[in-house]
Amino acid sequence: MREHPILKKLRLLTADHPCSRMMVSCDQAQLMANLVKLIKAKKVIEIGVFTGYNTLNMALVLPDNGRVIACDINEDYVKIGKPLWKEAGVDHKIDLRIKPAIQTLDELLASGEAETFDFAFIDADKESCNEYYEKCLRLIKKGGIIAIDNVLWSGRVLKPRKDDLATQSIHHLNEKLLRDARVNISMLPMGDGVTLAFKL
Ligand SMILES: C[S@@+](CC[C@H](N)C(=O)[O-])C[C@H]1O[C@@H](n2cnc3c(N)ncnc32)[C@H](O)[C@@H]1O
User: Fold this and answer.
1) pLDDT for residue 1
2) Cβ(73) – ligand 1 distance below 6 Å
3) Which tens digit of pLDDT belongs to each residue from 103-133?
4) Coil, strand or helix: which one is 48?
5) Which domain of life is it from (predicted)?
6) 123 ligand 1 Cβ < 6 A
7) Are strands 194-199 and 140-149 parallel, antiparallel or unpaired?
8) Which of 143, 116, 157, 154 has the alpha carbon at shortest distance from 197?
9) What distance in Å separates the CA atoms of residue 37 and residue 11, rounded to the nearest whole number?
10) Mean pLDDT, rounded, for 91-105
11) Does ligand 1 lie within 6 Å of residue 22's CB atom?
């Protein structure tokens, strides 16, 4: 896998964390970087930063005036990666918002930023994935892409238990995307499954 040396450093640093499984896979990150470059993205949203591996990954390929709105609620996780954003010289492209992501998305919409984003990556609490999708769909331009992580959820989406709200939410969003005429979709069996939704 091609990987920028500071991304590798952050991946190895995150590997020692007890929640390291939350980090996006290397191949998924590479695909996202390629998509961001392909569509010449300037404005990107990441919902769920963790230690900031994919935040850094996207910031590295954005133009110098590009911007990642990075949403998380846990500053302790983000603190791990932040010094490496600086070391890579891309921290000026990252606008970190520590608060519930729904609030950040609502603020972006309220400040007139609807249809101004090129790419969004949804990778936070699964119970809210439908709300994240709907708000991101309003925020991105036509031709923009929304990537949704964990759409296979280790296979649990095939038979969601009634008391498992996270799995039910992902399952419902998968079903909805299948019929959603506002987007074209590709569901990729990569990592824990990632769906790409291309806004029409
Ligand atoms: C799977 S991790 C994100 C991994 C990250 N995208 C990466 O590339 O490594 C999920 C993150 O979502 C964050 N999160 C959970 N609930 C949230 C919420 N309501 N708003 C924003 N972030 C949230 C968690 O703190 C955690 O850091």
Assistant:
1) 83
2) yes
3) 999 999 999 999 999 999 999 999 999 999 9
4) coil
5) Eukaryota
6) yes
7) antiparallel
8) 143
9) 21
10) 98
11) yes
What whole-number distance in Å separates Cα of residue 105 and Cα of residue 102?
5
The pTM score is 0.98
7 lines ligand 1 (CB under 6 A): no
Q: How many CA atoms lie within 13 A of 167 on its CB side?
A: 13
Model confidence pLDDT, tens digit, residues 37-77: 999 999 999 999 999 999 999 999 999 999 999 999 999 99
Q: Would you place residue 25 in the very low, low, confident or very high pLDDT band (cuts 50, 70, 90)? A: very high
For atom 5 of ligand 1, the residue with the nearest CA is: 49
Identify the structural domains of the chain with CATH numbers, from first to last.
5-199 (3.40.50.150)
* 149 ligand 1 Cβ < 6 A: no
DSSP state string for 90-141: -GGGEEEEES-HHHHHHHHHHTT-TT-EEEEEE-S-GGGHHHHHHHHHHHEE
The whole-chain average pLDDT of the chain stands at: 97
Rg (CA), the chain: 16
Cβ–ligand 1 contact at 120 (below 6 Å): no
Ligand 1 centroid from CA 50, angstroms:
5
Residue nearest to atom 26 of ligand 1 (CA): 50
Q: Is the CB of 54 under 6 A from ligand 1?
A: yes
Residue 77 half-sphere exposure, CB side, CA atoms within 13 Å? Answer: 22
Both structure tokens of 145 = 């892409």
